[in-house]
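Today's session is about reading a structure prediction critically. Students often jump straight to the picture, but the first step is always the sequence itself: look for stretches that repeat, for charged clusters, for runs of hydrophobic residues. Only then move on to the predicted structure, which in these notes is written as discrete structure tokens rather than atom positions. Here is the chain we will use throughout the hour.
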Amino acid sequence: MPDPSLAREVGRWYSVAQRDLPWRRPGTSPWAVLVSEIMLQQTPVARVTGPWAAWLERWPTPVALAADSPGEAVRMWGRLGYPRRALRLHACATAVVQRYDGQLPRTVDELLTLPGVGDYTARAVAAFAYRQRVPVVDTNVRRVVARLVEGRADAVVRRSDLGLVEELLPTDPVEAATASVALMELGALVCTARAPRCSSCPVQHRCAWATAGYPQLEAPVKRPQPFAGTDRQVRGRLMAVLRDAPSAVTAAALAAAWDEPVQRARALDGLVADGLVDPLPDGTYALPS
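Below is the predicted structure for this chain, in token form.
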């Protein structure tokens, strides 16, 4: 049976070891927390802090973003990667204005009605912005719980993890919210995937994985796909041309960004299909209006 005192112990460690991340500071709005969660998807913290601050300086509220164009959101997204996230944030802001009078909703169920907000993001906002007792499970939390409680190496996130993590949380909502972010921080800084710092772990004495002799994953870890030469790289090159241009660009300008025509055409078609690029009647291309 999971023991809530474990999460409290991790919470005490977090109170002195946590990183000073701007979206965790007191007074951060729920909208700012949501923006951070969307930006942090598949993106390291170090790459997010600057763009997050710039985004919120320009659009401090959902109302401000919804009043601007989707293309400006894509332009402002810059080189964070996966620019469809910018479109989802814009659609989310528009929905908040239309359905919730410009105020980000508080409950997981309401947050899930917003475009681009999945189960993890809804729970993260409910816990981190609204300080609710809501289990939040990402790969870091999954890895910590798998090792500490189940005594095995990390595995893929499962729906059943929510119940397991919820049993670990203190009953007080504010303490539970702190425990949620503390478990995540422990996985990010100490209980890491490739080189866990077990000697620095505040709860190593309670770790079932250590007691079991640190068993390894049964399935091999997949290596990340190389970036150079992929369609993702081509898409990034084309998007850079469009973001940097004050108006629509010609096909020749896009061709100068990547000279292999078949791959360039495939990447461009994908960008159009994703709603990131508008082909105009005169043969030029622009960010969505």
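Discussion point for the tutorial: The chain has a mean pLDDT of 94.
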